[in-house]
């Protein structure tokens, strides 16, 4: 069987996102669907003294119509890339791998991005490389998908030649209300992921489900 995973290109995603990517034969960035304001597409969490700090990427959308994910632009007037990098530097300056990870992130954040999706995808691909994941990736906007919702998932699986779809557990209710996988010859499976626990330098407690960069800064090499 050939497994497909389809996920929106979120900003600085958590480790479970990369577990899905690692489990797939083909990982599809779902970038042709409607953008959701104040979603994980533009924000995520890092560690601070209070437990966590939310980083939100300022974005500009089309003012008169619904906007696709691949159409959303970064609002550079608020200098979000500079501000986020500063927060990351402050929060992780004492971490185990700061001297390696921060310069690499600094190079990424220093690129001339126009669209939010391009920043998100570059950060995700960076994370995949650091975590040793080499799964094939493709953007849904390159596949000319015409079906909505679950029908779109079926269509994507067919277009990329996969007969098994692996879904995050959080989508179970939505998918099972519209389950047409078996009748389309596609096996439906759900992610089974247990969050790894690691030493978050400078803190006695552990906070899970933070951005993957928290793990990169703190993991033992």
Shape verdict: globular
Mean pLDDT: 94
Catalogue the unreliable spans.
none
Give the H and E element order: EHEEEEEHHHEHEHEH
Instruction: Count every beta strand, where a strand is a DSSP E run of 2 or more residues.
Output: 9
Report Rg.
18 Å
Q: Mind summarizing the main beta sheet? A: 5 strands, parallel
Q: Percent helix among the residues?
A: 25-40%
How many domain regions?
1
Strand content: 5-15%
Quickly give the structural class.
Answer: alpha/beta
Describe what you observe in this structure:
- This protein has 221 residues and is α/β, with parallel strands linked by helices.
- The chain is built from 7 helices and 9 strands, in the order βαβββββαααβαβαβα.
- The chain has helices at residues 15-23, 80-92, 98-109, 116-130, 149-159, 172-177, 212-218; strands at residues 3-7, 26-29, 43-46, 53-56, 59-60, 73-74, 136-139, 164-167, 187-190.
- The strands form 3 sheets. The protein has a 5-stranded parallel sheet, sandwiched between helices. It has a two-stranded antiparallel ribbon with strand order 3-4. It has a two-stranded antiparallel ribbon with strand order 5-6.
- α2 (80-92) packs antiparallel against α3 (98-109) and α3 runs antiparallel to α7 (212-218).
- The protein is globular, with a radius of gyration of 18 Å.
- 31% of the residues are buried.
Write the layout of secondary structure elements.
Layout: E1 3-7, H1 15-23, E2 26-29, E3 43-46, E4 53-56, E5 59-60, E6 73-74, H2 80-92, H3 98-109, H4 116-130, E7 136-139, H5 149-159, E8 164-167, H6 172-177, E9 187-190, H7 212-218
Parallel strand pairs: 1-2, 1-8, 2-7, 8-9
Antiparallel strand pairs: 3-4, 5-6
């Amino acid at each position: 069987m050939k497994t497909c995973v389809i996920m929106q290109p979120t900003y600085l995603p958590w480790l479970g996102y990369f577990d899905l990517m690692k489990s797939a034969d083909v990982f599809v960035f779902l970038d042709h669907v409607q953008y959701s304001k104040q979603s994980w597409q533009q924000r995520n969490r890092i560690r601070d003294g209070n437990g966590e700090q939310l980083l939100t990427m300022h974005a500009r959308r089309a003012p008169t119509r619904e906007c696709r994910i691949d159409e959303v632009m970064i609002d550079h007037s608020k200098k979000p890339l500079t501000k986020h990098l500063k927060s990351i530097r402050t929060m992780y300056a004492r971490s185990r791998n700061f001297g390696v990870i921060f310069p690499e992130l600094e190079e990424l954040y220093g690129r001339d991005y126009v669209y939010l999706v391009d920043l998100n995808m570059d950060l995700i691909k960076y994370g995949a490389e650091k975590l040793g994941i080499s799964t094939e990736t493709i953007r849904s906007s390159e596949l000319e998908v015409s079906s909505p919702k679950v029908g779109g998932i079926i269509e994507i699986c067919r277009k990329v030649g996969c007969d098994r779809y692996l879904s995050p557990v959080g989508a179970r209710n939505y998918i099972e209300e519209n389950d047409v996988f078996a009748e389309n010859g596609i096996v439906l499976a759900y992610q089974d992921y247990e969050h790894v626990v690691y030493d978050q330098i400078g803190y006695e407690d552990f906070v899970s489900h933070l951005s993957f960069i928290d793990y990169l800064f703190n993991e033992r090499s």
